[in-house]
Amino acid sequence: MSQTIPAASPMSSATHSVRGACPHDCPDTCALEVTVSDGRVVRVAGAVDHAPTAGALCTKVAFYPERIHHPDRLLYPMRRVGGKGPGARFERISWERALATIADRFRAIASEHGAEAIVPYSYAGNSGLLGYGSMDRRFFHRLGASQLDRTICASAGALGYRGTIGGSVGFDVENVVDARLIIIWGSNSVVSNLHFWRLAQEARRRGARLIAIDPCRTATADKCDQHLALLPGTDSALAFGLMHVLIRDDLLDHDYIARCTLGFEALKERAMQYPPVRVAAICGIGEGQVEQLAQAYGSTTPAAIRTNYGINRTAGGGMALRAVSCLPALIGAWRHPAGGILLSSSGNYPVATAALERPELMPTPAPRTINMSTIGHDLLRAQPPIRALFVYNSNPVAVAPQSAEVVAGFARADLFTVVHDLFQTDTADYADIVLPATSHMEQLDIHKSYGHLHVQVNQPAIAALGEALPNTELFRRLARQLGFNEPCFADSDEDLCRQAFDWNDPRMAGLSWDKLKLAGHARLNLPRGAAPFAEGGFPTPSGKCEFTSETMASLGLDPLPDFVAPREWRQSPLAAEFPLALITPPARNFLNTSFANSSRFLAQEKSPTVHLHPVDAAPRAIVDGVTVRVFNHRGEFRARAVVSDRPRPGVAMATSIWWRKLSPDGRNCNQVTSQALTDMGGGATFYDCLVEIARAD
Ligand SMILES: Nc1nc2c(c(=O)[nH]1)N[C@H]1C(S)=C(S)[C@@H](COP(=O)(O)OP(=O)(O)OC[C@H]3O[C@@H](n4cnc5c(=O)[nH]c(N)nc54)[C@H](O)[C@@H]3O)O[C@H]1N2
Ligand SMILES: Nc1nc2c(c(=O)[nH]1)N[C@H]1C(S)=C(S)[C@@H](COP(=O)(O)OP(=O)(O)OC[C@H]3O[C@@H](n4cnc5c(=O)[nH]c(N)nc54)[C@H](O)[C@@H]3O)O[C@H]1N2
Ligand SMILES: [Mo]
């Protein structure tokens, strides 16, 4: 078997520096300079020579040595003794015994019920191409386990955006400094996309106007020139209001529309159904605000829209991105390097997904697919039943919607659960077998980004702590244990890095694994300062920006964008009982639930809070600082009330994601969120959630 665990560095007694890449699920994918002394990580800094990172890190990663050497790191395999759930007790076992136990159970389940009864559950706790999906996928494909549809974050928006633009591409973020207008649409850049915020500020110094579109006056909205506080889930209506005014007042680029778009007449007809007066009523804003934004957008060049996944978490999340992404083509914003729209840049990378994941190892017919956003429901009701769950790179008991069902599913006595993580998470408390994972500083990886255009290598900085293993090595060993002897299971991590990209793709010209290994990072071979779609050439079937999309039609969807109302809407019957729209966006000091077990960051975030507007607080006799119950028909959690004008009236905002067991009431905001899915892509609808709030006393 290939040796992939880094040996203790020969230089371990001296201080030295190693080049790394931040593996967290964040668009910034920073290049790191890791300082190691005596085998310990003592300092982490942002690489100065990496343009997107520019020497700066978020607070979370700046304190990374505390995470790496945290006293709670899992160091050995363990098996549970006693009941499942909070307070569960575990005892140390050997890797041999852990692997044998898992293999025996998987064999028994597969022979009795079929391997489809085994389900992998992973997301982007590690976003490296190896850590995210490589040896693990090969293993589950060969096993014949159920497939997992990884929908919990971005699937709706990505699909909607693809309908219009053709893929996860957009303006080159490094050009945005030259924009004259930047609309930050459904994104809290200061918190979740800090390195974009740096560029937006530079643009502002050069004279750009910044506008935030967000139900809350976030830290980002605070610093913008203007803030439009619409109701959650109404973004597509606002986009149509803007289109209406652009068309009505002829603020259009007719030449660009004629040459580079498809279906303008049909889009125009639909936009005519959305006059500002109607849009204002849907969005809960003033008619003048719609008019004004359209005028600003239609008359400022270059205009950039930085949107993000904040707008894809309601029932119409797919249509939201489908509609918003139509705007730049109407005004010809794509003609300019600093114009257009950006949701994700990940489609620029020629990742060799099939080479990494080997889908051909799957049996035919292919096993069923389980949607990760409905794991609670599926653990309780999938047919045939799920008998075993293997969780890694994710903490579903805390992050998946509708916790009551998720917890009941994980608590099933007959479910065999394995959890591989760095920490004893809420999910690990339900495991039969807990396995220790290395951090990225203990393993090799290669990275793309969804916020910039650079390829990065993450070199191991220190030896694995305790008996921790990287995902790749864990699944290599499990494959051997189960007798899978296809040659691909012997690939080393370096082999996997070499397989991770199609190096012959023109975007990789001048790059090779060997060069990257030395350099640490390099930009894709894409022209700098360019406007990628100035002459069209979108990655859609027609090569045009598709207002009407046959791809959408072939999926049984409306070929045109439209406004799809939130499922839990002010007009819905539920609203009488639960009148407040709850959104639960990320806290600054946490990354989903990662970092949310650090005393430093817990001290910063203090306690679970829910912000509500004075007009909503007053009739409920809620004052700042009191403990409140946030509840609906799915459940309840407690939080400290913050009365402020940050959320707009009718909206409550609770930052996420707290560990359940570290919260005063042992629950978190996902107790009230719903497992209903988005209009397309099977996405989660975390921000489509009506609640009532009351004082806990
Ligand atoms: N510090 C930190 N950074 C993170 C994360 C984290 O947890 N913490 N998570 C990472 C991950 S996994 C992701 S996916 C990205 C997420 O990054 P983004 O998608 O940019 O998400 P947020 O920063 O939550 O910004 C979403 C904003 O949208 C607003 N919002 C909510 N609903 C709506 C709506 O219907 N319409 C509009 N217009 N706005 C709405 C919220 O108030 C919030 O301010 O961030 C990544 N970066
Ligand atoms: N209410 C509400 N819920 C949400 C959201 C929200 O905004 N509101 N956001 C949603 C979004 S956008 C997302 S992306 C999901 C994120 O949900 P998850 O993907 O579950 O993210 P984390 O909670 O950070 O959990 C990642 C886990 O992976 C572990 N890990 C890190 N590196 C490795 C590794 O190399 N190997 C292994 N085996 N484990 C590793 C970490 O220690 C951590 O416990 O949550 C979603 N849930
Ligand atoms: Mo996410």
What does this structure look like?
The structure is a single chain. The chain has three domains: 251 residues, 3-Layer(aba) Sandwich (Rossmann fold), CATH 3.40.50; 202 residues, Dimethylsulfoxide Reductase, domain 2 (3-Layer(aba) Sandwich); 122 residues, Beta Barrel (Barwin-like endoglucanases). It has 27 helices and 27 strands. It starts with 15 loop residues before the first strand and ends with a strand. The N terminus is likely disordered. Helix content is 29%, strand content 18%. The protein is of the alpha/beta class and 697 residues long. The radius of gyration is 25 Å and the shape is globular. The strands form seven sheets. The protein has a six-stranded mixed beta sheet with strand order 5-4-17-16-15-6, with helices on one face. Strands 22-26-23-25-24-27 form a six-stranded mixed beta barrel. A hairpin with a 6-residue loop joins β18 and β19. α10 runs antiparallel to α13, α10 packs across α14 and α10 packs parallel to α15. The protein binds ligand MGD (2 copies) and molybdenum atom. The site of one ligand MGD has 33 residues, from β16.
Characterize this entry briefly.
The protein is α/β, with parallel strands linked by helices and 697 residues long. It folds into 3 domains: 78-153 and 349-523, Rossmann fold; 156-343 and 541-554, Dimethylsulfoxide Reductase, domain 2 (3-Layer(aba) Sandwich); 574-695, Barwin-like endoglucanases (Beta Barrel). It is built from 27 helices and 27 strands.
